[in-house]
Amino acid sequence: MVDPGLVVVDKAPGMTSHDVVARVRRLAGTRKVGHAGTLDPMATGVLVLGVDRATRLLGHLMLTEKAYDATVRLGVSTTTDDAEGEVTASTPASHLQPGLVQTELEELVGDILQVPTAVSAIKVDGKRAYQRVRDGEQVELKARPVTIHELVVHDQRVAGDWLDVDISVRCSSGTYIRAIARDVGAALGVGGHLTALRRTAVGPFDLSAARTLEQLADDFAVLPIAEAARASFASLDLDEDQAGDVRVGRGLDLTLPGDGPHAVFAPDGQFLALYEQRGQQARSVAVFVG
């Protein structure tokens, strides 16, 4: 079995995130593998997995911002807001002016309320929304606050009666790119859905760090948990006494240099825990050593 750490996969199209986890479990020789946020089967790109103790980092990594490249097709609406769903409406959109499309997309930048796509993994009364849709139920999800930090339009081109728009998005966790396609299509009165989606980054991990499953099968390696923690969080090196307190879960009488979880390390570089400020003390969020 490999040491605990992170694996950054460049997911191929047609695979579920669970498919990727199952493959990495075999390669790593352990069932203790999880992922930091799913990717739809149609989507490709960065999927961050944790192995062994590093799975405990994943819940915190899921809260970091993400980046995507996508293609929106204006003029066609689908049941899933992407190309895998059934067409529900079709309205010619090739006449739309580039400036108008750009303006409507820019309206989505910032702190917004977004209704997730109905076939999301959000649970409704204990059951995934997508499963309820598959079972023939009508699912209406509540709008949720998300942040779209940046939305860049790269190209717009006519495709028959439709208009294809290539965009890049940098956003908060929980943002649905399919919902962006749906909402801009609705605002323009023609409908819209995604025809391509590629996640280019999850927090500090981007495509330059990602490897395909074929590459991992030839040479499987993880990013050690200490390196993963330093890359993912603000870090703080402790002295021996402080490290001893962390090992038994005590608070630290210090002020952390910033908000959010901090990765704390022993003098020898061992990753010990995630700590965050709580009043006058820094307290543990998760301890990774005994």
From TrEMBL:
Name used for this protein in its record: tRNA pseudouridine synthase B
Domain Pseudouridine synthase II N-terminal, first and last residues per copy: 25-177
Annotated catalysed reactions: uridine(55) in tRNA = pseudouridine(55) in tRNA
Gene expressing this chain: truB
Family: Belongs to the pseudouridine synthase TruB family. Type 1 subfamily.
Active site: 40
Alphabetic keyword roster: Isomerase, tRNA processing
Xref: PANTHER family: PSEUDOURIDYLATE SYNTHASE TRUB1 (PTHR13767:SF2), TRNA-PSEUDOURIDINE SYNTHASE (PTHR13767)
EC annotation from Swiss-Prot or TrEMBL: 5.4.99.25
Location of the tRNA pseudouridine synthase II TruB subfamily 2 C-terminal domain: 233-288
Organism: Nocardioides cavernae
Domain annotation tRNA pseudouridylate synthase B C-terminal: ranges: 178-220
Functional description taken from the UniProt entry: Responsible for synthesis of pseudouridine from uracil-55 in the psi GC loop of transfer RNAs.
Record InterPro entries: PsdUridine_synth_cat_dom_sf, PsdUridine_synth_N, PUA-like_sf, PUA_sf, tRNA_psdUridine_synth_fam2_C, tRNA_psdUridine_synth_TruB, TruB_C
